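pls design
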């Protein structure tokens, strides 16, 4: 606190996004300011606060230590808030936009593509909208496919693809994919800057594992957790119907166990949850000892395993790994996909490029794609949520310290 008794809060640093003016030197007519077509849209009646200004920001962290703030230390990261701007940088009738999806399947991908097409077409009047087939390789090998709203409503006009990133792109590129896709988008951004091209690129993070950093969650995650409940329920029935039955459910999550964690908390039928961490099987406090006690007490057990944690049990094996991502998005994810798609359009049409839209503490912001490409979101086994899992399942930590490993060695020798 200062001398008046008021608490001084930390300052914040705005993570600035690149603009087309940065690429073109600020003097290109193609980047001139044009009134946003939404202002004349017959279904919209924009109020004075409808359009987002360049000074509207979203803070990355809303929880902080007030004692350090009172000492005047620390700055908070801030991002530009998503939403339509009062002016756009291109005449929409002359914009040529491309949409590309990369990586594996994910609930909501079709919704994102559909909303990108419909948003560009209906909100801004963009008529040259194309779908690039088979990922980034489609820019070179497979060409493009026209995408009108009527076709987009029937399903995604694109096929998924991986690899072969090519740098010859249209004037607006919307890339939907995971961390590899975002790294490819960084390359496209750098090439556009090097060649001084009026190319705006925007990414929509797609990972069912919810392992993208900075944003609150990735689309498709809620649907995947909901679908995982069915597999856990089936495993519980199977395990309960047999003497000493063990139901093993393998869920997606190579590097982060968010699906397994949330499915366990939502189910309450799970006896043990294993996520990608340093857990061990044998010895005091190991998985086998825990399961032995649980079987002896209850006569059955259900184990949920994230794929990155391995799979060494093979009884009553329920494997919905890919089923949970090959289903339609639920209502919450569908709405989320719409917001992401429209946020991407609203950012790329005015002047921004090299960004990814996403919810940050419940508010949507534009994040530089370089940050998203490198950010990770592993499960923190020291936080309250993992402690909640352990309280629900009553499982030990399964993380071996040096002392535990020594005791396990003695236990095995005996």
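designed seq:
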């Amino acid at each position: 606190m200062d001398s008046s008794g008021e608490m001084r809060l930390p300052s914040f640093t705005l993570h600035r996004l690149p603009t087309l003016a940065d690429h073109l030197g600020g003097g290109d007519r193609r980047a001139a300011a044009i009134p946003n077509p939404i202002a004349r849209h017959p279904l919209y009646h924009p109020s004075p606060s409808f359009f987002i200004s360049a000074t509207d920001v979203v803070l990355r962290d809303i929880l902080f230590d007030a004692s350090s703030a009172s000492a005047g230390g620390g700055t908070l990261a801030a991002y530009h808030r998503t939403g339509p701007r009062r002016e756009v940088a291109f005449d929409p009738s002359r914009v040529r936009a491309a949409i590309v999806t990369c990586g594996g399947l994910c609930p909501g991908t079709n919704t994102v593509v559909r909303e990108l097409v419909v948003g560009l077409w209906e909100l801004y009047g963009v008529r040259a909208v194309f779908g690039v087939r088979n990922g980034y390789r489609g820019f070179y090998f497979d060409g493009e496919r026209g995408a009108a709203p009527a076709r987009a409503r029937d399903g995604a006009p694109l096929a998924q693809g991986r690899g072969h990133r090519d740098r010859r792109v249209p004037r607006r590129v919307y890339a939907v994919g995971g961390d590899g896709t975002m790294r490819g988008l960084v390359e496209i951004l750098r090439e556009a800057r090097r060649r001084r091209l009026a190319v705006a690129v925007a990414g929509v993070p797609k990972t069912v594992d919810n392992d993208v950093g900075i944003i609150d969650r990735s689309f498709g995650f809620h649907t995947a957790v909901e679908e995982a409940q069915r597999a856990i329920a089936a495993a519980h029935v199977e395990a309960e119907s047999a003497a000493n039955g063990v139901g093993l459910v393998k869920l997606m999550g190579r590097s982060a166990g968010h699906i397994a964690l949330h499915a366990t908390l939502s189910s309450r039928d799970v006896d043990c949850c294993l996520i990608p961490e340093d857990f061990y099987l044998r010895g005091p406090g190991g998985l086998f000892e825990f399961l032995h006690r649980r079987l002896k007490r209850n006569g059955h057990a259900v184990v949920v395993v994230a794929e990155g944690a391995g799979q060494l049990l093979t009884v009553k094996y329920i494997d919905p790994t890919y089923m949970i991502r090959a289903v339609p998005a639920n209502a919450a994810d569908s709405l989320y996909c719409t917001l992401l798609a429209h946020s991407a359009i609203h950012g790329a049409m005015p002047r921004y490029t090299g960004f990814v839209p996403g919810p940050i503490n419940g508010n949507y912001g534009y994040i530089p794609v370089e940050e998203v490409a490198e950010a990770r979101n592993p499960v923190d086994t020291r936080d309250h949520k993992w402690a909640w899992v352990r309280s629900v399942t009553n499982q030990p930590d399964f993380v071996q310290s040096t002392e535990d490993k020594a005791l396990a060695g003695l236990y095995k020798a005996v």
